[in-house]
Amino acid sequence: MFRIKKLDIFVAKQFGLLFFATFFICQFVLMMQFLWRYVDELIGKGLSLEVMAQFFWYMGLMLMPQAFPLAILLSSLITFGNLGESSELTAIKAAGISLLQSMRSLIVIVIAISCVSFFFQEVIGPKAFVSFRQLLISMKQKNPEVEIPEGIFYDGIPGSNLYVQKKNLDTGTLYGIMIYRMNGGYEDAAIILADSGRIQATAEKKHLLLTLYSGEWFENMRQSGIGVAANIPYRRETFSTKRIVLDFDSGLDLVEAGWISADARAKSMGRILHDLDSIHEFNDSIGHQFYRDAQRSALARANLSKQDSLAASKLTAKEVGNIDSTFAKLSGELKQQVITIASNDAQAALSEMAYKVDYSDALNKDDREHQMEAINKVTLSLSCLIFFFIGAPLGAIIRKGGLGVPVIISVLVFIVFYILDNTGMKMARDDNWTVWFGKLLGTAVLSPIACFFTYKANNDSVVFNIDLYKNMLISMLGIRTKRYITRKEVIIEDPKYLTDSEILKNVSLEVVQYMEVHKLLRWPNPIKVFFRPGDDHEIEHVYGSLEVAIEDLSYTKNNYVLMKLNQFPIIATHAHTRPFRKKWLNAVTGLFLPTGIFFYIRMLRFRFRLYRDLQHILRINEKLIPRVVDLADLQSEGSITVT
Fewer CB in a 10 Å sphere around the end CB: N or C, the chain? Predict the structure, then answer.
């Protein structure tokens, strides 16, 4: 039975405080990133604080499910990083409590947050999306506040283009004014020039009052009822002061929200699944109808073409059977008529086909968007659990708290997820990938990573040990490592020189015999390399004996012997026979041709290296064995010297 313990409460408190703090930070960052998409369209509209508050409120409700995973990732990473940095996690494990047991209270909390995230997407999110889109479109369509720029034409006033050469910001006076009014179209355009003027909104915010000084008014009168043949087609007026009222509605009128509700993001999971059946049925019916139309159109065009050919050439139906011969018998004028008719038919068919293709693409896109939204509701909730099982184990492994390393790692993980998720969404939306593959790409990549980190952290395995990965890379690429044997400061027992000399002599004999039997410079059979066991026990025995002698001689005080010991190569005892020790891994590598070729060439390199190493061992032994024998004689006489 699950019982709440003090450790559960302690860890939950640590996580809870950090989660609320990081959630508001993540929410703010996401809202600012989202706001930048529309800031150019909303700026300068003179929106009230109430409208802006509604805008941010609906935006926050929409982005809350996206902020949950990032907040969980960051807070869990900081929580277990703090526990590890303060050695509290070590004390917990010393008490016999595993990492998963210490995480159980947080697992329950994260599952609850995932349910809350799904509830937001199912109930609150669709309503917030409808209200947000309705408000956003209304804000975009709202006439902007009059902010006339200098030196360019301003088209923010309906039916007019206004040019101002210079402005006085202190008095609000405009200089060098030019106005193009096109209320009746270009045929009824009016041009107004003024030396200076002022502009201000009326009290009801429905019109603009433009006061102009020292100017002229030019207007086309042809459409003003005088007639086309009028003697005075244009009107010119000179004025010292002129007031003009321009239509300018600066209020905010909400658009209808009916068509917004058809968007997949404005629907719950149940409604999406219900509408998908209707969408599939409708798309199938449209496809069948297009197919029947194409059949009827092709048949009708064929009959019409045959009738036109008969009428034009006055040939019989039998003579029309061969189209080429029929066309060749026509006169030049009739040929041109037939070509024109065929070209028009082809163009009409092409236009009709293009329209049907665009319509079909729109229907299929709507279908894909509904499927993507249904999957997104599940994956976004599931990402809360995935990010937790990435953040908590990483915190336990790194053991760094605060906002330094955890923030960097969280941002990197979230960027990877964001890139994968958005790439998959775009490819699925454009029908380049299947919907399931595109929307599950990020989840499929991060889920194994979460399992890997959780397994490593729970078993106290080394994950971020740079030396471990460095040694693996050195082993894979076959980079040689060197010996580093130094003189011991304190030697309790001198080496057994006589025994070591015998071992070195035997090693030399075994090396010579090995090189005679094994032709290392020959290319081995790939079948034997990848699909048969091939451990070289002979070279393992030779190298093991050599290491015993080197280990014992490393306690010598003789500098020459130490120098020669450092010249002995470090031998890879199995890399020259097959890539891996496990048979199934070799078989898989051999079946996959690119990796098989790489590891086969790598094995050839190790065979050539082994050949050179064995020759090098023989050369070293030729010089080292006599010195070791001399030291053995001196040791038997009890007069060992350092040099």
Answer: N
The residue behind tokens 């041109």 is 336
Residues whose CB is less than 8 angstroms from the CB of residue 113 and which lie 6 or more positions away in sequence, other chains included: 68, 72, 384
Q: How far is CA 62 from CA 48, 57, 151, 229, 483, in A?
A: 22, 9, 41, 63, 62
Name every residue whose Cβ is closer than 8 Å to that of residue 326 and which is 6 or more positions away in sequence. 309, 313, 315, 319, 320
Q: Residue 607: enclosing H or E segment and its boundaries?
A: helix 593-637
In DSSP terms, 201 is beta-bridged to 208
Amino acid present at 204: E
Q: Alpha-carbon distance 583 to 301, whole Å?
A: 68
DSSP per-residue string spanning 231-265: S--EEEEEEEEEEEEEE---S--PPP-TTGGGSGG
521 phi and psi, to 5 degrees?
-85, 0
Residues 6 or more apart in contact with residue 90 via CB below 8 angstroms:
84
Task: Indicate if the alpha-carbon torsion angle 264, 29, 80, 15 is positive or negative.
Answer: negative
Whether the predicted model's global pTM rises above the 0.70 cut: no
Give yes or no for a contact between 550 and 565, defined as CB atoms under 8 angstroms apart.
Answer: yes
Name the region of 31 (left: φ>0; alpha: ψ -120 to 50; beta: rest): alpha
CA distance to 490, 498, 561, 641, per residue, from 487 (Å): 9, 20, 10, 14
Spell out, as residue ranges, where the chain has pLDDT lower than 70: 1-2, 40-46, 140-147, 156, 183-188, 201-206, 221-233, 248-258, 297-324, 326-327, 401-403, 461-469, 475-478, 534, 638-643
Contacts of 556 (CB under 8 A, 6+ apart): 494, 495, 497, 562, 631
DSSP notation for 87-102:
THHHHHHHTT--HHHH
Q: Is 453 left (phi over 0), alpha (psi -120 to 50) or beta?
A: alpha
DSSP state for residue 320 in the 8-state scheme = G
Whose structure tokens read 């014992």?
A: 552
Using alpha carbons, select from 466, 383, 464, 449 the residue that is nearest to residue 81: 464
Q: Are 401 and 85 in contact (CB under 8 A)?
A: yes
Question: How is the chain split among helix, strand and coil, in percent rounded to 5?
Answer: 65, 10, 25
